[in-house]
Amino acid sequence: MSKGNFPIDKFQKIQTPFYYYDMELLDKTLTTVKEETAKYGFTEHYAIKANANPTLLKHIASYGFGADCVSGGEVKAALEAGFDPAKIVFAGVGKADWEIETALDGGIFCFNVESVPEAEIINAIAGAKGKKACVEIRVNPNVDAHTHAKITTGLSENKFGINLSQLPMVIGKIESLENLELIGLHFHIGSQITDMHVFEALCTKVNEIVEELASAGRTFSNLNFGGGLGIDYQDPDKHSIPQFKEYFKVFNDNVKRSANVKLHFELGRAIVAQCGTLISKVLYIKEGEVKKFAILDAGFTELIRPAMYDAYHSIENITSNDAEDVYDVVGPICESSDVFAKERKLNKAKRGDLFALRSAGAYGEVMASQYNLRTLPKAYFSNNQNSI
Ligand SMILES: *Cc1c(COP(=O)(O)O)cnc(C)c1O
Predict the structure, then answer these.
(1) 250 Cβ partners below 8 Å, 6+ apart?
(2) Is the distance from CB of 302 to CB of 339 less than 8 angstroms?
(3) How many helices (H) and strands (E) does the chain have?
(4) If you measure from the C-alpha of residue 149 to the centroid of ligand 1, how many angstroms do you get, rounded to a whole number?
(5) How do 378-381 and 315-317 pair as beta strands?
(6) What is the DSSP letter of 165?
(7) For each of the chain's 388 residues, which pLDDT tens digit applies?
(8) Which atom of ligand 1 sits closest to the CA of residue 70?
(9) DSSP states of 286-340 as a string?
(10) Cα(128)–Cα(90) distance, integer angstroms
């Protein structure tokens, strides 16, 4: 069993739990994405909500990625990290007035608009500032992402986007608002999608929508396909780089488009998940009546994905090579949902052992909370070992 690439001696001297980022792997990931999108002339935006650690944001911005934001705070963070405002997009069903103002003042590329009332407010705020706001309509294409219900966004029952039956009406409405310029359509159907057929189905659906609108005389110069590419949580070492090649090829091969149409993508998880690990210490081994519990000093306050989405994370005992035993791996939070894994085979554990919770770079640190008045976890980076 792999023990990963961890400086364990250094880890033993610092306060757990903490996040550790493998910057070499992040570099490899970013380089791969840039190579694949360059092949087809696609534009890539990093979805900031996956991980907004300022060091990571600066690093990703330095590769020339655009940013996908879902709040005013994220727009500010993107601007501070050095993302080019001309490549920042802003989505979300509930943009507050101050968030719209922040984005307009920052000179972002466009708003992904999710309702008519929102379009009207953006129009009014832009007008008051003497500006014109570029917008794309977020369309709900009713394509099933075949992923966990809590991360499915592209079905008619979801709160996101404009339903197809209402799309022509909404286009007409937005075109009548004088401070808005409608430049494209946006789609984002869900997250942790590993079946390329789902993205093929999205392409087919988008072709239909675009063709129908074109026959009514309406064409768009930007198509944004959102994010959602999944990663291998079961075996992060085997598939440390997600299926970017296959993913971008699906869109190149399947989206019917004229030469002036730009394709945009907003990947989050696939960019940062595999480079991040949550390192935690075993506090106690508790032998129950029917189970053995490994009680860690990290809980869902540091990594909420197992509690919130029933997510699987590969876990390794990185300080033991002893024969395997079976554990429920749990945290210290006073909630019965504070469980990282059930019946997991791990090298025999004792108090003080370090556990690595792998593939935790996306929707990990950024979702940390202070529930139970806990301290937010620190982050360390492989390219700055002196700080460890
Ligand atoms: C969350 C989100 C993304 C990124 O999703 P991933 O699954 O992390 O790639 C992209 N676009 C929008 C609008 C989102 O809300």
Answers:
(1) 196, 199, 200, 203
(2) no
(3) 11, 17
(4) 15
(5) unpaired
(6) G
(7) 346 679 999 999 999 999 999 999 999 999 999 999 999 999 999 999 999 999 999 999 999 999 999 999 999 999 999 999 999 999 999 999 999 999 999 999 999 999 999 999 999 999 999 999 999 999 999 888 877 777 677 677 777 889 999 999 999 999 999 999 999 999 999 999 999 999 999 999 999 999 999 999 999 999 999 999 999 999 999 999 999 999 999 999 999 999 999 999 999 999 999 999 999 999 999 998 999 999 999 999 999 999 999 999 999 999 999 999 999 999 999 999 999 999 999 999 999 999 999 999 999 999 999 999 999 999 999 998 777 7
(8) 15
(9) EE-SS-EEEEES--TTT--HHHHH-----EEETT--SPEEEEEEE-SSSSTT-EE
(10) 20
| CA 307–ligand 1 middle distance (angstroms) | 20
CA distances in angstroms from 165 to 140, 176, 198, listed in the order given: 10, 19, 22
Residue 47 alpha carbon to ligand 1 centre in Å: 6
Among 119, 121, 93, 88, smallest CA distance to 106 is for 88
For ligand 1, whether the C-beta of 68 sits within 6 Å is: yes
Looking at residue 54, its amino acid is: P
- Residues with Cβ < 8 Å from 144, sequence gap 6 or more? 152, 154, 155, 189, 198
